[in-house]
Design brief:
Strand content: under 5%
Distance between the termini: 45 Å
Amino acid sequence: MRRALFIVMLLAGLAGAAPDDAESHARLAKQLFSQRKWDEAIVEYQAAFERDGKPGRLFNIAQAYRLKGDAAMAVEYYQRYLDLDPGGRGAADARAQIKLLTPSPSPSPSPSPSPSSSSSSSPSPSPSPSPSPYAPDPAVAPDPLAPPPPPIDLHPGKRSRQIAQVTGGAGVILVLLGFYYGGQANAKEQEIADLTPLQDAWDPALQRDGERLQLYSWICYGTGAAAIATSALLYLRSARMDRAARERAARTAIAPVPGGATLTFTRRF
């Protein structure tokens, strides 16, 4: 009984501690806006405006109404934004949208000809219907106050891993070449050792060839080892980059909602 009472009190405390300030509503509205949930975004932007009175909230509400297809409400909120902040960052866009969404007055019909007119005059053709003033304008710039969040690359270390694979492969090949040159140098040394004094002629070229092959061997060993070490460091760096990207994606997926918070983990397979 005591444990159940403690759990109830804990849940009530968590629900009461849910953020209800303007910035929390604005962050949630921005996330809903990027998900094209216009009605929910409008509600959250209105809640944010009621708490801090920032004119930019009205601009974002107008944008949501416009993208939703409600031109009349979009014009109303664009005008309310201009009334509060006529020189704001979105003022030019608001005026352009009002001009685009406001229907132009239809021309007055021409008077019909009187019966006394000549019977040979043909009736004037009816005017063609004007295009809908609410059609979306493809040239309109995106909303500068509520842009959708940029996508997060969950594998930024892919390039480093590719370089590590090439570098590691080159290092292995160099080490194998070192073994090859080392074997050739040992063969030259053995050939010199097998010479019989006073019977076989001494050839200084054998010693020079052996020393040169031994030098090649050490160069290949050193370069190959450095390449393999660099490859390992690049692999570790790519793993850290991927882990940091996943943690950043998990942090940005936390969205406050009334009464608590939602947490979404994103993972690519």
